[in-house]
Amino acid sequence: MHMADALLAPGVAAVMYAVSGAAAGVSIKKLKLEDEAEKIPVMGVMSAFVFAGQMINYTIPGTGSSGHMCGGMLLSAILGPYAGFLSMIVILAIQGLFFADGGLMALGANVWNMAFYGCFLGYFLIYRPIVKSKLGNTKLRLMAASVLGCILTLQLGAFSVCIETFASGITELPFAAFAGLMQPIHLVIGLIEGLITAAVLVFIYETRPEILEVVGKEDTAQSKWSLKKTALTLGVMVLLIGGIGSQFASSNPDGLEWSMFGNKESGYSENMGLDEEDYGISSAVSESFGRFQEKTSFLPDYAFSSDGENPAGTSVSGILGSVIVAGLAVALCYLGGFFRKKRAGA
To answer: Is the model's pTM score more than 0.85?
Structure first.
């Protein structure tokens, strides 16, 4: 669901930067009040996990499309909504800066669409109420909260993309027709992300339940693994997903690209039928952002070269990007004073 700069007018992009920045400011303020220092390595590992997970596009059968996880719900379930939101900002910023995945002018919109809904609405409206309820056992509540939360947040994110392009005056994407393509495909993507999220959360619940927000504070299950072992296992999974799993990612366009361009060359609908080389709007602002992105993205499209023929480029991108994301997330915790242990009696 990464938006390109061509899909936004500068004014709309500025508004999305403002609202996403406000949400980030609130998150920073909230995190400065927390004193759970053990979350710092978990924040690094899970941020890397979501970065690597986003590299694996899975085919949506019968459509010619593919999807990938967003990760906001997953991060918030483990780190809490505020740390989860800042982790998503780190992930999306690194993707845009170093891998040209999503426009830099559109970063504020991408943060809002892919992070805000999952980290806040999905968490507070779906995840926390369901997990804190007494319906069924904890595993069932985690699974239900994951699936329902991801479906809701992916639907909201997809709808926001439609609103943003409409507000930007992208006449090639009439609102009703565009939404008619975006919403159904992201309903399926949301369902799959919910299942992935549920699997990860159940694994953590089985090994180290106190890592999970809400569950860790209220569940009496005994930890089977140490925090170090759990973190190391997740770290190994990150390397395997980014280095090896990324090689098996679907080549089909993702939900947003599929809605705009279709997949006619593979025998599917052309949908909105936009020209991939010439669509949307251009502006001096977006061109400036584009030139800057060309200088910073050393592995554009997660490849060594524009033709992407060397598969090693994808593996290197997955591993290197995961390491950068993890390192930056941990560094921000220390530099920002997040989760700082308070002195006794303070």
So the answer is: yes
